[in-house]
TrEMBL record:
<keyword id="KW-0479">Metal-binding</keyword>
<keyword id="KW-0234">DNA repair</keyword>
<keyword id="KW-0408">Iron</keyword>
<protein>
    <recommendedName>
        <fullName>Type-5 uracil-DNA glycosylase</fullName>
    </recommendedName>
</protein>
<dbReference type="InterPro" id="IPR044147">
    <property type="entry name" value="UdgB-like"/>
</dbReference>
<dbReference type="InterPro" id="IPR005122">
    <property type="entry name" value="Uracil-DNA_glycosylase-like"/>
</dbReference>
<dbReference type="InterPro" id="IPR051536">
    <property type="entry name" value="UDG_Type-4/5"/>
</dbReference>
<feature type="domain" description="Uracil-DNA glycosylase-like">
    <location>
        <begin position="61"/>
        <end position="239"/>
    </location>
</feature>
<comment type="similarity">
    <text>Belongs to the uracil-DNA glycosylase (UDG) superfamily. Type 5 (UDGb) family.</text>
</comment>
<dbReference type="Pfam" id="PF03167">
    <property type="entry name" value="UDG"/>
</dbReference>
<keyword id="KW-0227">DNA damage</keyword>
<keyword id="KW-0004">4Fe-4S</keyword>
<keyword id="KW-0411">Iron-sulfur</keyword>
<dbReference type="InterPro" id="IPR036895">
    <property type="entry name" value="Uracil-DNA_glycosylase-like_sf"/>
</dbReference>
<keyword id="KW-0378">Hydrolase</keyword>
Amino acid sequence: MRRVRTVYRVATETVIDTVARLDQAVSECRACPRLVTWRERVAREKRAAYADQTYWGRPVPGFGPSDARLLIVGLAPAAHGANRTGRMFTGDRSGDVLYAALHAEGLASQPTAIHRGDGLELYGTRITAPVHCAPPENKPTPAERDTCRGWLVSELRLLAPTMRSVVVLGGFGWQALLPVLGESGWVIPKPRPVFGHGAHVVLAPETRPAPLHVFGSYHVSQQNTFTGRLTPEMLRAVLRRAADLAGLNPPV
């Protein structure tokens, strides 16, 4: 417990006054021994299809503009996706689904995300996760989630002046995010809102200038997209509502 409290204190009390500085600090974190060992092992051993590539093998920071009005919250980087490319939801099939939907809704400059230098831009939208390192079996522990929590607190503080909507991909992100939003200036209703696809709750501002719209969506994992539990149309519908309520007017 002492390690968790120490990391949380460093992440929230250290003065990080820009998103760029936050992203740099996140990418240098080594707080969770199990995750450090795993992400670096994957980066060394690689997948055969990517044997000629240099893996990122570090924590993956958020991606998108610092004045975003819409925030998308996932789970954690994929071992051979973002842990390889160094950018959220880039280089794997989950990202294929997400970025295609963002592009279709005018929130991304292109429908594919292959590597960090592919020219992809997000419009008024930023993507982050409650855990920034790839975990074994895509399952971070509660302690690892809590250790990483300070980075999410800092990110929300920096985004709060412009952020008006959040789309949370999956129940893990929903459970991780709501308490942080409660600490960050919005009122969490009691009983706490339950996750579900299409769930929508409006959080009243406590110390923030405006309410915050929070939406739930099934995660864009292959388990959901390959079985049809989450279709592109379902995802686009949630993104469209969130973008509209965020006041985004993406380019046509």
